[in-house]
Amino acid sequence: MESSSISPVKPTSTSFASKVKALLMRAWRERWSDHQWGVHLKSVVNSCNGDSKELPEILLQQALVGPNPNALIIGYLQHIVLSQMIPPCSALNLIQKYDDISKPYCTIGLIELTDAIACNISVTSGMESSVVLCKCLQKTLHWLMMCILQSMKAMKDSQQQQEYISIIDAASVAALHIADNTTVQALLYVAMSEDQDNFRDYEQAVINVRGTLSQPVSDMLPSQTKQKVLIAQQTMSKVQDMALPSQPLCEVSHLGICPTINTLVTLEAVLNPSSDVQPFIDQLCVSERLLHLPRPSLYCEILRACFMGLNNCADTPEELKWAAFTYLKLPQALRYMKQQSPNQDIGEDLYQGLSELMNSVPLLDLVEIKLKCECLKFLIGEFSKNDLLDKAQTQQLMNRRSADCGTKIETSSHASPIQIIRNEQQLPKIIKGLSNFSHLDPGKESATLDNADASKTPSDMMSLLCLLTSGRNLDFILAVASSTGKLLGLASKLVKINEFAKQTQGEMGKMAQTRIMLFDISFLMLCHISQVYGLEIIAPSPEYSDSFFAHWATRCLPEDGKYKCIDNFTPTDQGKVDLLIQHLISGVDVNKLNITRMNEYCLNFRWLYKRF
């Protein structure tokens, strides 16, 4: 397009544009250096809060007024681009719109500016999106090819043959400089893969230039110019011949920490505590092959990631997730890996991995001091319990850890690893106790965590649920259940208890009070499970998908820190809402109302809050 077709600056930026033009006039009059220009321009941009992306348009409008470009202004534009005051693509995209080859010296000036910018782009500046930069470089080469093509076509009917030859020389040299850079070639490969349509247009321009060189018009070109065009095209064709490397770019087995394995372990431990272990195993096996990691190094990286997580976790819930993953889920994953590779000696590989981990003595000491227990010895014990290490290997590792540790750690009975291991043994009894619950059978003894499976009556169940929610018991039990794949079963039992505890018509006395307390505790436990592990723990169960809690949580329970709007729903019985408000204001016990089911309390209280 013609220079005049460069769109004028928007009216909203008139003040900013006028100040830049005034500064430009002063710089031209006083012949400022590039650095002086940059310092004064930055103060104008900061004072006007202007969009610095408009600067290329303002400067090019002034530089391309006459038949020859203003070299001083072109130099100023080059300086603010290379000093990263403006993104390089904002200047290159504007230059690509210029196609007025009737002003050859302006075209040559822009080609030289393009060469200077594109060959000195910093790909780590962070000013441009990576894909945007890739596409911009491809369009820049496309523009250079179009300059060559249009110049060759215009030579037939023009008296400015020498000027057009200069354009072809400059564009060929610029294309060669840009495309000969290996970094640029990689970016062009990304652009080719990202946008096939634009790449085909670019490829067609290259083909058209090659075809024009074979026509009679090319006889007007000096042999040196032809040679420059051919060399540039050969260099640009390297992008299409590139292939992804089949070998790893670097060997990572010697690195202190393998980021890929560390990330996979962290995602599984913190974000997917209740997920199935098989996808995690598949990810580890794929990473092992891609990174060419020996199996002992893989085990070492997994274990190191676990201890780093235990050391770096900031709060108790995250610490429990890491402890449950390390001491319960990880041995389970390694046992599955052993079953999938029966011909491989996992014991020896795990022994070597643990031996390599023991070289990280400061890390192990920090974790054991923080958790107040001999964490590595407990983990080795879990591996031995799962038949991953034999007795001799177990004893050798424990003896080495004792020698490396020096001072013996005083083990606390409340340490997370100890509590996790202890609650793993109690969890089956707890689930059995919840399963055996029936209000028809008389209980024989009070419920405790050690005889949880003996809970039969509502009173026994009430005692058991109170024990589960006292202290940190519930957090430990939920962490164990999520890591062993039993969280869904535990939640289903609580839903069943919650459904049973909905008070029936006419029921009074102690049984009614027990039902209310059972409903209250089971309801709060289910709310806690849903908020920590997600509502999907409750919803998928077909048996309880129509339960009160699943219905209530879907409509009312906040998710991801966002509250749900109740305006889309209407109360099932407005009279009960009014009655509830009336009695609460008068101070009457809620249990004496005609609202006889606990689920109706929950369903109607939200309308009560809205009314207040």
UniProtKB/TrEMBL annotation:
Q: Name one GO molecular function term.
A: transcription coregulator activity
Q: Which family does it belong to?
A: Belongs to the Mediator complex subunit 24 family.
Q: What is this protein called?
A: Mediator of RNA polymerase II transcription subunit 24
Q: Name one GO cellular component term.
A: mediator complex
Any idea which UniProt keywords this protein has? Activator, Nucleus, Transcription, Transcription regulation
GO BP annotations, alphabetical order: positive regulation of transcription initiation by RNA polymerase II
Mostly located where? nucleus
Compartments annotated for it: namely: Nucleus
| A Pfam cross-reference name | Med24_N
Q: What InterPro entries does this protein map onto? A: Mediator_Med24 (IPR021429)
